[in-house]
Specification:
The protein is of the alpha/beta class. It is built from 24 helices and 14 strands.
Length: 650
């Protein structure tokens, strides 16, 4: 409506301007009534326009005037009156007379031609003032909260959409009950926790669980990130905190969710020089506002972080974030439940077994499983399938864990042979040890930046707890690739293919000595403080709490563990050199060796055929990597021996 009015005004203005230009294009000369009579007598006047206050005389072409004007009071408007001035009747009859009345369009256009410029000037000034006012409003609203509110009457997420976190849902069920029936708790004098801190690794579903609490309770949900509080201007963060809590109180009962609260909740006074910066002012305001809640406010603060160790202690004390809910990586049962949630609405083939997928994905969190199902759907769509098969799911798991295959990469025969024996060395050493991890898959097809891969099947129990003998077996398996290269190829000639293995084996051995107390010489002690300064990072913030002599002993013990593992790997490869050759030759011929095939080969049984891979996509979808250097140290050094994470504690 407003735009239509603007367009109408523009059209009227243009019409007035054109009329003004047309009527004023010829210069006007002011004549007396006698001079006008003389021109009529000479036959030079074509038309006379009689307006309210004046006469406009239009002359014929070739006359000495083009347009003239005379005052109306100077003469009568009747043509006959010009006879008294000596104008003949014939001359008077050759003149056309036109009378413009007050309501005529011409008068209106004349009026508009004078008034519209003034209107446009006034409108322009008004527009400038409004813009200035808008700028002021924007400056005043700079301290307003950027929280997004989701009404509680239309829940999008409930507890049914959250799987693999049963204990966390039980903890938060009390929050839902308080928001639904606060009288039941208040009548007994109970105080519901003011704040709930969700702690967990990235992708475990902290944000999803917070939305589910709001959906179950049916109350408004305010969502904001911790980084949205702080700006470059002083005082903006504290102002936004105040505005957020004011909005929450007006909409109570409600839930305020602060994602990544560590962005503003880091420990105070930990910066360089202990400066009191804008982030700390924002944190101070959060602390004050959380203390200011009344018992009948019914506003609950839910925050999420994956770094609870760096939060300020005042934020975690009782009365603020009273309760801490930990979302750990789901176990096998939890992963199966998460798979069931994410396959809803997707056409699955009859051969898909979610329990098998859950067993083969230890360490996966909810985000990983969602990505896996999505990758499987994309793969099925690319191959023009009507449903998602088990083979698509397995290929998606491998793609998420190992990266995409790069079959188009150009590799020489010597490199293929080195890679085949390298990966075969990992598998043979691991299989030859009682404590070795089962080999799930071996391949010499490049994936990601790795030239080849050996994938181990690690259970959930192995991730949580690991014995010393199992870790030693893992060290030997990590060095199996380097030992195989030394055994098969030229004496003393090794490649860069074991660089990733060496990094991992050194890291595991050092953790065995310094963190897990698995050194016979140093005993059950932990060396080196892992606490870090908030702004200095991990390495700078680590502190050595041992002497130089102890550091030498640590290095000696690490070196001993690695050397013993290397000797054991070489010994096992010599003992099972026939299996090493068989595995390597099979890889050179078929490129990939699955678990069932590897076990059949190891037990001298008939090797089952390889499962048919998903149909290849159209050739136009493939990306050629021939121009990339296949022998670069960075790529060829990745042996693919990347076991699942070592347990962080016993």
């Amino acid at each position: 409506m407003k735009n239509s009015l603007v367009y109408v005004l523009i059209v009227i203005a243009l019409g007035a301007i054109l009329y003004s230009v047309r009527t004023q294009s010829a210069p006007k000369t002011e004549l007396t009534i006698s001079e006008v009579a003389t021109q009529i007598q000479r036959g030079n006047v074509e038309k006379i326009v009689v307006a309210e206050d004046d006469l406009t005389i239009h002359f014929r072409p070739g006359a000495e005037y083009e347009l003239a004007i005379t005052r109306k009071e100077s003469a009568s408007t009747a043509p006959e009156q010009f006879a008294t001035l000596g104008v003949s009747e014939q001359a008077r009859s050759n003149v056309k007379w036109e009378v413009q009345r007050p309501g005529d369009w011409g008068n209106i256009m004349v009026l508009l031609s004078y008034t519209l410029p003034a209107v446009f000037v006034i409108g322009f000034i008004y527009f400038i003032l409004r813009q200035a006012q808008g700028t002021n409003n924007q400056a005043l609203s700079f301290g307003k909260s950027k929280a997004r509110m989701v009404p509680g009457d239309q829940p999008t997420v409930t507890f049914d959409d959250v799987a693999g976190a049963d204990e966390a849902k039980e903890e938060l069920q009390e929050v839902v009950e308080f928001l639904q029936e606060p009288e039941k708790f208040i009548g007994l004098g109970a105080r519901i926790p003011k704040g709930v801190l969700l702690v967990g690794s990235p992708g475990t579903g902290k944000t999803l669980l917070a939305k589910a609490v709001s959906g179950e309770a049916g109350v408004p949900f305010f969502s904001i990130s911790g980084s949205e509080f702080v700006e470059m201007f002083v005082g903006v963060g504290a102002s936004r905190v105040r505005d957020l809590f004011e909005q929450a109180k007006k909409n109570s009962p409600c839930i305020v969710f602060v994602d990544e609260i560590d962005a503003v909740g880091r420990q105070r006074g930990a910066g360089l020089g202990g400066s009191h910066d804008e982030r700390e002012q924002t944190l101070n305001q959060i602390l004050v506002e959380m203390d200011g809640f009344d018992t009948d406010t019914n506003v609950i603060i839910v925050a999420a972080t994956n770094r609870p160790d760096i939060l300020d202690p005042a934020l975690l004390r009782p009365g603020r974030f009273d309760r801490r809910v930990v979302l750990d990586r789901p176990d096998m049962v939890g992963r199966e439940a998460i798979f069931k949630v994410h396959v809803r609405g997707k056409p699955l083939a009859t051969d898909v077994k979610l329990d098998v997928l859950a067993k083969s994905t230890p360490g996966f969190v909810g985000a990983d499983i969602e990505n896996t199902v999505n990758e499987a759907a994309i793969l099925a769509a690319r191959t023009n399938q009507k449903s998602i098969s088990m083979r698509d799911m397995e290929a998606a798991v491998e793609r998420v864990v190992l990266g995409p295959e790069r079959k188009s990469r150009i590799i020489t025969e010597r490199e293929r042979k080195i890679t085949a024996y390298h990966e075969a060395g990992h598998a043979v050493v691991s299989r030859a040890q009682p404590e070795g991890e089962p080999v799930r898959k071996i391949t010499i097809i490049p994936r990601g930046i790795a030239a080849g891969l050996t994938w181990y099947l690690t259970s959930d129990e192995d991730q949580r707890l690991a014995t010393k003998s199992k870790l030693k077996a893992r060290l030997a398996a990590m060095l199996g690739g380097r030992a195989a290269e030394e055994l098969v190829f030229e004496k003393g000639e090794v490649t860069t293919g074991a660089s990733n293995d060496l990094e991992q084996v050194t890291s595991v051995a050092r953790q065995m000595v310094t963190r897990w107390g698995m050194s016979d010489k140093l005993g059950p002690m932990a060396f080196g403080k892992k606490e870090e300064l908030v702004f200095l990072g991990r390495e700078i913030g680590e502190q050595r709490d041992f002497s130089e002599s102890v550091a030498e002993e640590i290095d000696s013990e690490v070196r001993t563990l690695v050397a013993d593992a290397h000797k054991l790997a070489g010994k096992l490869l010599k003992k099972h050199s026939d299996k090493l050759d068989e595995v390597a030759n099979y890889l050179l011929e078929h490129e990939t060796l699955e678990l069932e095939q590897f076990e059949a080969l190891w037990n001298d049984e008939t090797i089952p055929p390889t499962k048919p891979p998903p149909s290849a996509p159209p050739s136009s979808d493939l990306t050629a990597d021939a121009e990339e250097d296949a022998t670069s140290d960075d790529d060829s050094a990745k042996s693919g021996n990347d076991p699942l994470p070592i347990p962080s504690g016993a």
